[in-house]
Amino acid sequence: MAKQPTQSQRIDEILDRLAHLEKAMHGSSHTHDCKQPSDTTGMGMCRLPDVPERTFSSEMSPTRERLVRYFGKKWVSGTNLTYAFFDTPADSGDDPNVDLVRAGFKAWEELEIGISFEEVSDVNNAMVRIGFRSGDGAWSYVGRDIIDVAGRGERTMNFGWDLTTDPRGGGVDTPIHEIGHTLGFPHEHQNPFSGIVWDEDAVYRHFAGSPNFWSRATTFHNVLRKLDRDVVDGSSWDPDSIMHYAFAAGLIEEPTEYATGLNPEDGLSETDIEEVQKLYPPVDRRGFRKLRPLESEKLDLEPGDQVNFELSIERSDDYTLQTFGMSDVVMVLFEENPNEADHWQYIAGDDDSGSELNAKLQVRLKRDRRYLLRLRLYSQNDAGSTAVLMW
To answer: Which residues contact 374 (CB under 8 A, 6 or more apart)?
Structure first.
């Protein structure tokens, strides 16, 4: 019989397979102006805002920290991301621009990943809130920061120029890029393993001019800054990624083939598709485990694995759902839309990763409604040492 890999070996295998998706600094969650050919008049580049970086205890193990940093901004598979467009004068877009953003969502959804997208009419009821404020660039928060950081009712994504004039991808590449950030993907050109050597003075001069007018600090943060090697964990560079900037001639010294400019191919690259499908596999909605009050369920999971429970509610009441054990877990509760069968809406979530606490939700549940509880494990001290209980 073949020898089974140890938990440490399984963790390393998962990190080797998945970590090249993660190209973000600690606490990566940012907003920015987006992927455009650098010689396109009036169109900017991605400007990441300052978001507090996540810090960890010095006693936290390197392996645990790497897993938490990798999964920290990602969604659980099965999440339905609702989106809406502002209709206020300052933030509304015309029909052609709105339709291009809708096409961007469709491009990701057609990959049959474990994330779905639903347009709703009221921005106050949407997780992704999209504006078209002129002059504010094209930007999006990264991953779960759209609910963890962005204020209620505020924009989580913006398009600050006329997308119909964008020659890249027929105008849809910018929305695809921004939605990629919403899915949790950072910028590819900051991968420390890209081998890019910049003409830094030229880069500062270029981005100080029109249409960006960036300060040196903004240019460093968004272009020259290399991402943390421990977080990226040896990921290969994809210059054709939808998450990569285009760069004009004279900014890149090495690799020399890009000295005359770098323009990624239109649309999602093969690597983009492969990696988003690995991170968000489709969820089989049949045969979910039942979670009943006062009956604990053991989580026999490997790092990165997910389990889904259907809650068995016999009476309407206030309930607590909590994990137990030394682990890092994100736990998210969904309620079925009463008007649309098998369509699940986000209700609440908690992430205990990087702390000594356990994930915990306190919610009002109704007997005549259906609920799903999804848990993704980041790490745990010992295999099978984590459980979840509802009471």
So the answer is: 76, 77, 78, 79, 306, 307, 308, 309, 331, 332, 333, 334
State residue 235's pLDDT score: 65
Choosing from 279, 298, 327, the residue where a domain stops is 279
Q: Report whether pLDDT(24) > 50.
A: no
Identify the CA nearest to 71 among candidates 278, 333, 303, 227: 303
Per the listing, tokens 């940012």 go with: 30
Sheet bearing 386-390, strands edge to edge = 297-299, 386-390, 317-324, 360-365
Nearest CA to 49 out of 27, 66, 72 is that of 27
What is the pTM for the complete model shown? 0.80
- Average pLDDT for the chain: 83
How sure is the predictor about 299, in pLDDT bands with cuts at 50, 70 and 90? confident
Q: What is the CATH number of the domain that holds 360?
A: 2.60.120.1050
- Which stretches of the chain are assigned E, i.e. beta strand? 79-85, 115-119, 128-131, 139-140, 157-158, 197-198, 252-254, 289-291, 297-299, 306-311, 317-324, 327-336, 344-351, 360-365, 371-380, 386-390
Question: How many residues does this entry show for the chain?
Answer: 391
Residues forming beta bridges with residue 311, ordered by sequence position: 291
Rounded to an integer, the average pLDDT of 184-190 is: 86
Q: Which helix (H) or strand (E) holds 251?
A: none
Q: Are residues 247 and 329 in the same domain?
A: no
Q: What pLDDT is recorded for position 174?
A: 92
**What are the tens digits of pLDDT across the range 134-148?**
988 889 998 999 988
Q: What is the pLDDT of residue 383?
A: 66
**Given 224, 253, 279, which residue is the final one in a domain?**
279
Of 81, 112, 118, 148, give the one whose Cα is nearest residue 351.
148
* C-beta separation of 69 from 22 below 8 A: yes
- 220 and 368 assigned to the same domain: no
Residue 290 tokens read as: 């039942």
